[in-house]
Amino acid sequence: MTAIMSVILYSILFLGSQTPLTRGEAQQLMEQLEQIAASIDSPFFIFFNNFGLSLLMALPFAGILVGGWVIYETGRYFSAMAMIYEISPTILIFLPIIMVYGILEFIGYGGMVTSGLILSHKIIRRQFRVEIKYYLLTLLLFAVVILIAAIIEYYLIIVARDVLREVGGIL
Q1: According to the model, what pLDDT value does residue 76 have?
Q2: Counting beta carbons within 10 angstroms of the beta carbon of residue 45, is it exposed (0 to 12), middle (13 to 18) or buried (19 or more)?
Q3: Secondary structure percentages of the chain, helix, strand, coil, to 5
Q4: Which residues neighbour 167 within 8 Å (Cβ) at sequence distance 6 or greater?
Q5: What is the C-alpha to C-alpha distance for residues 105 and 94, in angstroms, rounded to an integer?
Q6: Which segments in the chain show pLDDT lower than 70?
Q7: How many CB atoms lie within 10 A of CB 14?
Q8: 170, 81, 3, 143: CA torsion to nearest 10
Q9: Which of 89, 94, 140, 155 is the most exposed place for a label (fewest CB within 10 A)?
Q10: What is the predicted pLDDT for the residue at 168?
Q11: Cα angle vertex 3, ends 82, 128, to 5°?
């Protein structure tokens, strides 16, 4: 079920990346993204951001809605990058998958949403006490997956920054 939810969430990312934006909206989103990128000083910054969002996705009943909205909004950032850099948004959303961290992030997000859905079902069936320990263990497991993704993403960002500095110095 986690795999299916991960694919659904990635599909929502795709839809968000295809959202038409005005030039002004794209520039505003890019400014926000640049502010966030400038403050990334460790893999833990990425982890706490992503894990915090994933905890919202794991909320019973509301998590799936929150997750869908967060992922769609993330897709809009891809749409903004595509417009500003004049590149296909489809290519941009596949870069995290190619770099592996995107696969791990979406497995983590899919697992968190799935956990929230299962807990919602158990609450309705009055089996909350039975499910809570599995829910917490699942959150821990997917937190580790999201942490690994954050470490990979951080080091890719560092490498990209270093390469851009070197290229800038050569040119």
Answers
A1: 98
A2: middle
A3: 85, 0, 15
A4: none
A5: 13
A6: 168-171
A7: 17
A8: 70
A9: 140
A10: 67
A11: 120
